[in-house]
Amino acid sequence: MAFYYNNKYLSLFLFSFLLLINCKNEEKVAESTTKKVVEYDMYQPSEMANFMNAMYAYNQQLKAQIIAGETPTHLPLDLAKLHSAEMTDKKGRTAAWNSFVNVFIESQQTIIDTISNVDLKERYNASINNCLGCHKTECTGPIPKIKKLLIQ
Questions:
Q1: Are 151 and 66 in contact (CB under 8 A)?
Q2: Which region holds residue 122: left if phi is over 0, alpha if psi is between -120 and 50, else beta?
Q3: Collapsed DSSP state (helix, strand, coil) of residue 133
């Protein structure tokens, strides 16, 4: 009788244990199906940001040419786009920004001027310093990157 009595409680214990495990598995399934899906917005650079990146790449090439002793002879970028490219976050062009842009365009054009009496390295660095001057007032983020363009 003692064996039957212990076996009955053992069966009840196993049944309760299996029921408990089964309930916990159902809770895990229910939790996993109610998770929220997070959607991310991919960064889309503005027309101006794309143009600035192109100018950066171009000035890297200029720097390499100048260090190699070559004289650049043409300006492949249409710098007039600086006046029309869509700005990041729909920001407007300020009077300070417009004055910096005009000076920058002139300084970029002096780099390819083969008649100039000013040293090519000085003309190039003056152009990069114009970038830095504008970015100190308008968009400070890329300043460390721009500083790398300077020829020491």
A1: yes
A2: alpha
A3: helix
DSSP letter for each residue of 34-47: TPPPP--PPP---H
Which of 77, 83, 80, 71 has the alpha carbon at shortest distance from 123?
A: 71
Secondary structure (DSSP) of 6-35: HHHHHHHHHHHHHHHHHHHHHHHHHHHHTP
Instruction: Give the number of other CB atoms < 10 A from CB of residue 128.
Output: 22
Averaged pLDDT of the chain = 82
Give the count of beta carbons closer than 10 Å to the beta carbon of residue 146. 19
| Whether pLDDT at 24 is above 60 | no
CA dist 100 → 41, 69, 129, 136 (Å): 33, 29, 11, 11
pLDDT tens profile 86-129: 988 877 888 888 889 999 999 999 998 888 888 999 999 999 99
From the list 115, 109, 99, 102, the residue with the least C-alpha distance to 62 is: 109
Residue 123 tokens read as 């003309």
